[in-house]
Amino acid sequence: MKIGILVSSLPPEIIGGAELQAEKLGRLLGKKHRVLFLIRSKHNLPREEKRHGYHIKRRRFIGFPGLCMGFNLFSSLRDIYRNRSDIDVLICYNVENGLIGALAKGLFHIPTILFIQGEEEYVPGGPWRNRIYGFIALKFSDSILVQTETMRKDILEELRRRRISSLVTDIMLKIQVVPNGVEIRERRDFEGEKLVYMGRLTREKGVEYLISAMRLVRDVDLLIVGGGPDRRRLEEMTAGLRVKFIGMVSPEKVYDYLEQAKILILPSLYEGLPNVILEAMSVGVPVIATRVGGIPDVVKDGQTGLLVEPGSVDELTRGIKKLIEDDNLRKKLANNSFEEVKKYTWDHVVEKFENLIERIVK
Description:
With 362 residues, the chain is an alpha/beta fold. The chain has helices at residues 17-29, 68-82, 95-108, 128-140, 149-161, 165-172, 207-214, 231-236, 254-258, 275-282, 295-298, 313-325, 327-340, 346-361; strands at residues 2-6, 34-41, 48-51, 54-60, 89-93, 112-115, 143-146, 175-177, 194-198, 222-225, 243-247, 261-266, 287-290, 306-308.
């Protein structure tokens, strides 16, 4: 099978959840299939490259407001057309690429799979362009993937709220759950001493609420691992607090910081199914996260982690204090989450993709 994957970029150019998941999927599918990544690049990198068993073709990216979407749309369709003989099916990560996939399907008759990566792609408060792109991508994709059952229900409910009943009926027939994959590592036999946040430093990640909670939590350090446009603003909030900013780290270094964690905390306002939660659970690190996106399907409150309301400093503070003080609860959550995360192995994910691709192409 010849599989095309349309995603914004790949590590190490961009180290985001979708990019990491797409790269790992391409690496594993590449063992049995021909995999071609069509990505954009701001850097002076080779136009074509082969690595880890898959092929990459890059197109130039223009970052000027008002021009970037039109240029990206045109250049993406041009690349798909030029490589159409090497694409039996096209997997599109997020609704913007899903729009491109929908157009490619109409123009070049290539079956397409839309993979929605986060609730900001369909919730009312998300970017306006997602609501426009999303309608077209949802309607014309051959299959729609979401990371959890809650996200599947939320998309259908949002379409009902908008009174697009014909689209609901159509989507119900082609939407299914395929979670993120995780590598199950040897579980650590010790406990770290620090609170750890890992992720982008942007407003939707809710890090400011975690910093505010640290004013009420004593005698523990917080490591903030990641980079982004909000770093300076967040650093200014941490004067006098035991908070250290680590910056961006490579995927290989993630587990080095998880080893230092007593608790992983993810205070996001919007999410899909974050990789870092699965990674923490896979080595026995207890998790505190917010009730958003697909998180509640994995972090079951009081069983495999603790859930708090997004934006609530009080709930976040209580959750942190509760886990710090209760050794038995931490141990229980770590044990349960380690068992829960075994459902998300890459073997299961790849099998679901292969079955889906075979059905769509036939």
